[in-house]
Amino acid sequence: AVQAWSRNTPLDGLNLNRVFPGRADGSVTERIADAVSRVLLPNADIVFDLHSFGPTWDFPPAVITHPIADADLMAKTLAMAAAFKLPVTLLWQHDDTAGMFDSWAHSLGKVFVCAEFGGGTVSAEALAIYEAGVRNALVMLGLVEGKVEDV
């Protein structure tokens, strides 16, 4: 998908972020989602999903989440989003969340934080912001030493 400059996998035309939880007997994209769902997610407490918004969105670095019915999970998710210390935090109401990675992770009780950068490209500056955001979150979790710093 990256080499094709597309959100969709060229082999099957599917968007990985729209096929969760996937299918073990499905297309390549569905099998990737299935492996993430069966192997990785059960072993995770928190999920960081790093995106680049795509070439059609020129947007400042942002952390995005969706409203979650479970108040405790929503509070934990917002706290983790705040730990990234990015300029923008969006609480984005989607009407159609079927197959989305974050919706699936939330349904399993996982804290899920999506960081997005505009333009569909990766720069040294964006990577440094991502790194600082993830490090801040890891500090907040007590997994690495240090203090949360402004990005």
SSE diagram, text form:
Layout: H1 28-40, E1 46-50, E2 62-65, H2 71-83, E3 88-91, H3 101-107, E4 111-116, H4 124-141
Parallel strand pairs: 1-4, 2-3
Antiparallel strand pairs: 2-4
Helix pairs in contact: 2-4
Structure, explained:
Helices cover 34% and strands 13% of the residues. Helix 2 crosses helix 4. A four-stranded mixed β-sheet has the order 1-4-2-3. By secondary structure, the chain is α/β, with parallel strands linked by helices. It has two domains: 43 residues, no CATH class; 97 residues, no CATH class. The mean pLDDT is 88. The chain is built from four helices and four strands; from the N terminus they run H-E-E-H-E-H-E-H. The longest helix has 18 residues. The two termini are 29 Å apart.
Order of helices and strands: HEEHEHEH
N-to-C terminal Cα separation, in Å? 29 Å
Sequence of strands across the biggest β-sheet? 1-4-2-3
Helix percentage range:
25-40%
Which assembly state applies to the chains in this document? single chain
Strand tally is: 4
Strand % is 5-15%
- The residue-averaged pLDDT reads 88
Give the domain tally: 2
Backbone structural class:
alpha/beta
- Number of DSSP helical runs: 4
Radius of gyration: 16 Å
- Given as residue ranges, the uncertain stretches (5+ residues, pLDDT < 50) are none
